[in-house]
Design goal:
Strand content: 5-15%
Largest sheet: 6 strands, mixed
Shape: globular
CATH superfamily of the largest domain: NAD(P)-binding Rossmann-like Domain
Structural class: alpha/beta
Strand order of the largest sheet: 7-6-5-8-9-10
Number of domains: 4
CATH class of the largest domain: Alpha Beta
CATH topology of the largest domain: Rossmann fold
Radius of gyration: 30 Å
Distance between the termini: 61 Å
CATH architecture of the largest domain: 3-Layer(aba) Sandwich
């Protein structure tokens, strides 16, 4: 099947289309329904009748955008009318929801008259928190947007005009920086003079370019003052007092080419005629004004190239803008999306492109290097950081420019945005904030590993900890430099420094386990796991992270041998935190103890309960089995039963524990309260202790893969000093997350 056939099947599969309405409150009981509708709904109606702003408190208005079109200028399809444009508008709704958690009603108006269109949208103002205009032909789109901005009191944004302007504007900021040119000196040529081109030219002026340096060409050539009376008022503002000519004439000596016209109209000779290190934004879709390879091959110097296509570097994709602009605007109840907010968005995107790129984003684009430079001047659309970078910046600009109706606390707002991307990010924010309040020193074994170096940069940059990279100092610094990371990491190089005392200590600890003094010296110099373990044991670092390129057992062995478990603990355990949409569960043991007895199970439960509290979760523990409270009696079911009894009798255990019980009994409220009302657990468990390593490992992976849970970990509990063993292949964000947990562990000590 081809793309068209695949797309048709995608859209027609039940249910047809791409969006639906879902409820956000319980509707299971008669009382739920009486609250949702009659008679309970009267109470919020009266509140809003007294004060219309209460609609933001009691309804979904504050998170609802109307995507409105008449289908008169659908990208690549032209004037196909309102009904045929509906799949596009639904698609826009998908992007709003996917990238910024904004709900959308798509509105297709069968109306070409600008006045009537405006009147129709005005009547819908009470429904929405904002209006996104889409695929409306020029010059009607200018009139419609201008009038709506004047006549309604919610944000209005025509993405076809401003989206390309903002995203390409961010690219221009970085392209000029890389080319070593000032914005005000750039000679810019536009191919195309439609809504997008005019809005983009205007926006470049807002960024600092000079209007008198912009040459705009339409299908008849350069728009000059001689032609001013032939063109509409919007083109006329870019008429220049220069000789007439065609696009080739305009491009000669230009610094920047901006293509918003048709494919294939720029030749290599035209590119060769431009100034040094030219910037070419060939954004016609699906075929750019000149192909990427052609433009790059036309010159020997740097050609900084962007297109509208995803299969080449530097895609100018509007999804980098509109979801996050509206997110920030909605969250401060802005009355408009003004120029200050658009500029803030462009500057935030430009800044983000200069930062280290998450592994997940690199993987999504074929593991190709993504590093600030000619081939990476704007972030990728799937980069989750765009939400946290752009939305707060836009919201802040709205407040400072007077467009906002509410203020906001930046730190609290960033946490709210984290929660929109999932429970795992919300939970990690709790730990990150705790870590930043009192940073500790974290030793990173395998310090030459690129991921460890990038993680060290982020850990230090975010103020989470003071990282120490263990490894070859020259190699570490060279790698950091090649990655473009502007930081000077603290390095402990076992081959260079005086670490005889570490070798002596390792020999002292392991002499009766067969390690000679010579072997201890070799382990300290050649194995960063032993080096890091002794470093932490001696108090020269507060915590250790290791395991990125080792099997879990081999990475765990040195810390167990050197640091060992805490004084009151006999067994370490590996715990995963699994986060669902509205639920958090800690799963133990998933990495360490193969066949635990009741004492080990009890110890693991206590340590996992302590870990839950570091995430501000009050533990409720269930010891799992295939039996419910003695329904099966054998050696296997007695172990968790006896462990539960031991914990219930322990005065030091100050959280509810019960077992043995089946997994569904532990997590389903109706089963727990209905059939087993005698249980010590009054609410479903959030700490699940599996009877052995095999079941624990299987259980967490099934919950992760089939249950859609996000897994954080494994987090090692029970050690005398904070140690966490990474899994091979973990991403930089996983290292940063576990470093945060390690810091909070160290704070507890």
């Amino acid at each position: 099947m081809g793309l068209d056939e695949d797309a048709l099947e995608y859209h027609q599969t039940d249910p047809p289309g791409k969006i639906e309405i879902s409820t956000t409150k319980p509707t299971n009981t008669q009382r739920d329904l009486s609250l949702a509708y009659s008679p309970g709904v009267a109470a919020p109606c009266r509140k809003i009748d007294d004060d219309e702003t209460q609609a933001y408190t009691y309804t979904a208005k504050g998170n609802l955008v109307g995507v409105v079109s008449n289908g008169s200028a659908v990208l690549g399809l032209g004037d196909i009318g309102a009904q045929a444009s509906k799949p596009v508008m639904e698609g826009k709704g998908v992007l709003f929801k996917r990238f910024a958690d904004i709900d959308v009603f798509d509105i297709e108006l069968d109306e070409s008259d600008p006045h009537e269109f405006v009147e129709a949208v005005k009547m819908m103002e009470p429904t929405f928190g904002g209006i996104n205009l889409e695929d409306i032909t020029a010059p009607s789109c200018f009139t419609i947007e201008e009038r709506l901005r004047e006549e309604i009191d919610i944000p209005v944004f025509h993405d076809d005009q401003h989206g390309t302007a903002i995203i390409s504007g961010a690219a221009l900021l970085n392209a000029a920086d890389i080319a070593g040119k000032d914005l005000e000196d750039l000679e810019i040529v536009f191919s195309g003079a439609g809504a997008s081109a005019i809005a983009t030219a205007r926006f470049y002026v807002s960024l600092g370019c000079r209007a008198e340096n912009i040459t705009m060409c339409d299908s008849s050539g350069i728009i000059t003052e001689t032609r001013a009376q032939e063109v509409n008022e919007y083109k006329r503002q870019f008429a220049r007092d220069i000789p007439g000519g065609d696009l080739a004439d305009a491009m000669e000596g230009a610094d920047v080419f901006v293509g918003l016209s048709v494919g294939g109209i720029v030749s290599q000779e035209m590119v060769q005629s431009m100034a040094s290190n030219p910037v070419i934004f060939a954004m016609a879709n699906p075929d750019p004004e000149i192909g990427y390879e052609e433009a790059k091959a036309a010159r020997d110097d740097d050609v900084i190239m962007a297109t509208g296509r995803s299969d080449y570097p530097n895609q100018v994709n509007n999804v980098l803008g509109f979801p996050f602009i509206f997110r920030g605007a909605l969250d401060v109840r802005a009355t408009e999306i003004n120029e200050e907010m658009k500029v803030a968005c462009a500057e935030a995107l430009a800044d983000l492109a200069r930062q280290d790129v998450p592994d997940a984003v690199v993987k999504a684009y074929g593991d190709e290097p993504l590093q600030y430079g000619p081939d990476y001047i704007i972030p990728k659309p799937v980069d989750p950081r765009v939400l946290f970078q752009v939305a707060p910046t836009v919201a802040e600009a709205a407040i400072e420019s007077g467009a906002a109706r509410t203020d906001f606390d930046l730190d609290a707002y960033e946490e709210e945005l984290e929660a929109r991307l999932g429970k795992s990010r919300e939970m990690m924010r709790v730990v990150l904030n705790k870590a930043k309040s009192d940073p500790k020193t974290v030793a990173l074994a395998e310090g030459e590993n690129e991921k460890m170096i990038r993680a060290a940069y982020q850990i230090q940059e975010q103020g989470i900890a003071a990282p120490i990279l263990i490894g070859d100092e020259s190699e570490i610094r060279q790698t950091a430099s090649s990655l473009g990371l502007e930081f000077t990491p603290q390095v402990a190089d076992p081959a260079v420094g005086d670490y005889e005392a570490y070798a002596d200590r390792l020999h002292e600890l392991r002499a009766r386990k067969g390690i000679t003094r010579t072997e201890a010296g070799e382990l300290i110099e050649g194995d960063s796991n032993y080096f890091g373990s002794v470093m932490v044991e001696q108090g020269d670092a507060d915590a250790l992270l290791t395991g990125l390129s080792h099997h879990y057992p081999s990475a765990l062995r040195p810390p167990l041998q050197v640091i060992g478990t805490a004084d009151d603990v006999d067994y370490a355990a590996g715990v995963y935190m699994l986060t669902f949409k509205n639920r958090v569960i800690f799963v133990a043991d998933a990495t360490v103890n193969q066949a635990p007895d009741e004492e080990v199970l009890a110890e693991v439960t206590k340590q996992t309960g302590k870990l839950a509290r570091r995430f501000n979760i009050e533990p409720r523990a269930a010891l799992l089995s295939y039996s419910n409270f003695g329904s099966v009696d054998n050696d296997g079911t007695r172990k968790p039963r006896r462990a539960a009894t031991m914990l219930q009798d322990d005065p030091a255990v100050d959280f509810p524990v019960d077992g043995e019980m089946q997994a569904d009994t532990a997590v389903v409220d109706d089963i727990l309260e209905g059939t087993y009302g005698f249980s010590e657990l009054e609410e479903p468990a959030n700490v699940l202790v599996f009877p052995n390593l095999e079941s624990g490992n299987i259980g967490y992976k099934l919950l992760q893969r089939l249950g859609g849970a996000d897994a954080i970990g494994p987090m090692l509990v029970g050690m005398d000093r904070p140690v966490h063993v990474l899994q091979r292949g973990d991403e930089v964000k996983d290292i940063v997350n576990l470093a945060s947990v390690a810091v909070v562990d160290a704070q507890q000590e």
